[in-house]
Amino acid sequence: MDVRTRVAVSAALTLGLLAGCGDDAGAPAGPATGSPAPEAAGEPWYDEVAPASPGGTAGGIGSPCPVPVTFPLADGWTAKAIEPPKGELAELVGEALTKRGGTTVRCEVDGRPAGGGFLRIWAADSPTVTPRAALESFAAGAGETVAGQQFRDLRAGGFDATEMTWLATNPLVEEEDQSRNWALAVQSAGQTLVFAVNEGLITERTDVLPAYRLAVRGLAKGE
């Protein structure tokens, strides 16, 4: 992907141009069951960051987040469908906004109104890929320099899951400017799903980790 395309991708994601309509903020949230006790305070997992307060639920086929799981939404965060780009944007970036490392984005949970960032849910294109393999491909699929990968297995709500954290360097910014990323993968109804957040230029871990922790620790099978 050339520099012009990368700039367009970054701008589009930041502005939320592809977010569709609808959310499940009015529904009651399920319990955040299966959450592991904090094990690794500080870098890189920051387990001391507590889950956010719930404000609704998302997920389920036919919802704004059409995946075969449900998960709690942080208070003030809304789930929105991701629609393919159209017009000049589609010609410029093609599938770059919706495809990454063998996955396709299914929805975005937007926390900007509550002062947070984004949580995005992706589905692996191959139904047989393992959670760890899906995470490895996902991390490498953004065209960034990836370093410091770490993995751990844990329970995420009602699922066995694999979680990954890594540092990424965007070639469009200074080399020493790295962002910390977290992603968790589970398998449900023949799909491997990836829940991903990251620190950014205007978001810190305390902006994104509470909503991410709430979501993944409250995962349940969708209808």
What is the mean pLDDT? 82
Give the biggest beta sheet: 8 strands, antiparallel
Element order: H for helix, E for strand: HEEEHEEEHEEEEHE
N- and C-termini, Cα separation:
38 Å
Radius of gyration: 16 Å
Query: What's the total helix number?
Result: 4
Helicity range of the residues? 10-25%
Strand content: 25-35%
Which secondary-structure class do the elements indicate?
alpha+beta
Question: What would the principal axes of the Cα set say about the shape?
Answer: globular
Poorly predicted runs are: 1-35
Protein architecture, described:
It is a single chain. The chain has 223 residues and is of the alpha+beta class. It is built from 4 helices and 11 strands. The protein has helices at 3-15, 87-93, 131-140, 205-217; strands at residues 54-59, 69-74, 78-81, 99-100, 103-110, 118-124, 145-156, 159-169, 178-188, 191-198, 220-221. The strands form 2 sheets. Strands 3, 4, 5, 6, 7, 8, 9 and 10 form an 8-stranded antiparallel sheet that branches. It has a 3-stranded antiparallel sheet with strand order 1-2-11, with helices on one face. The longest helix is centred in the N-terminal third of the chain and has 13 residues, at 3-15. Mean pLDDT is 82; it is low at 1-35.
Provide tags for this entry.
3-stranded antiparallel beta sheet, 11 strands, 19% helix, globular, disordered N terminus
Q: Secondary structure elements and their pairing?
A:
Blueprint: H1 3-15, E1 54-59, E2 69-74, E3 78-81, H2 87-93, E4 99-100, E5 103-110, E6 118-124, H3 131-140, E7 145-156, E8 159-169, E9 178-188, E10 191-198, H4 205-217, E11 220-221
Antiparallel strand pairs: 1-2, 2-11, 3-5, 4-5, 5-6, 6-10, 7-8, 8-9, 9-10
